Amino acid sequence: MLYFNFKLFYHRYQNELPGKIKSRGKDAHLNHEEICQIMKWKQTRGKTFPQLNYLIKVNTPRAVMAETKKAFKKLPNLGLALTALSNLKGVGTTMASALLAAAAPDKAPFMADECLKAIPAIEGIDYTAKEYLNFVAHIQNTVERLNGECSENTWNPHSVELALWTHYVANEFKPELLNSVPEAPKKPISEQTNTDAHTNGNVKKIELEPTSDESNPEPLPPSNGHQLTIEDDSRDKSEDDITNDSITTSESAQTPLAEALTEDSSSLPAPDEPPVKKFKNEDQTVAAEANGN
Asked: Per-residue pLDDT tens for 59-70?
């Protein structure tokens, strides 16, 4: 049943939802049922926290429609879009990235832990807006490189994120699958063109407008009378889990996509942090509730 549900949620998220959102035109938004389904899909990609399923359901249908509409109108400014989505209960950086990837796969990748670990220049997992924008810069640079190396511009941030996630999972659990992956054909030097994204090995930064000073609504108190706050995302991370060794992929197993990310990200300057809110770790909230704090 779990396998069936994963396939079902995956199909809805990847194939059905983007078309539904696009069909709403200038008033593109998510409804209450859709955002709850996205939360279920997101939790199939990592550890499950029942509190998040509860919190996301607490949002009223009107609030979900209003805040997602506001966020989608802010695109392509990802910083402002993240700020709008953070006004919904249970929505941290990772969940917000899932909503944006469904609405605009050509602009926003999903911030999966596996993708963060696969990029050597990202030395830890930090669920903040700054870290997400840093991740997007790496992904966007790879999109431009891959589209420059192939005749068809078929890559976008979400498709690169999916390919990177697939490579990481295959390398982690069944690396022999990668032995049959052919190397990507390379254009002759005379046919290669430079883009604005590459200047002396540096990557073009994502420039965003300053974000507005929007704040989260008061968090919902749990039934035991203690205050519960969910301001970040989704995975348990001990200090041992976020060492450099745990986020570096094996050189022997890298495909052209992973090599492109490694090459492009080595000299990437850290982007300036936009004045959007940071989100504390959801797991700290789960632990606090379990201890009655």
From this structure: 999 999 999 999
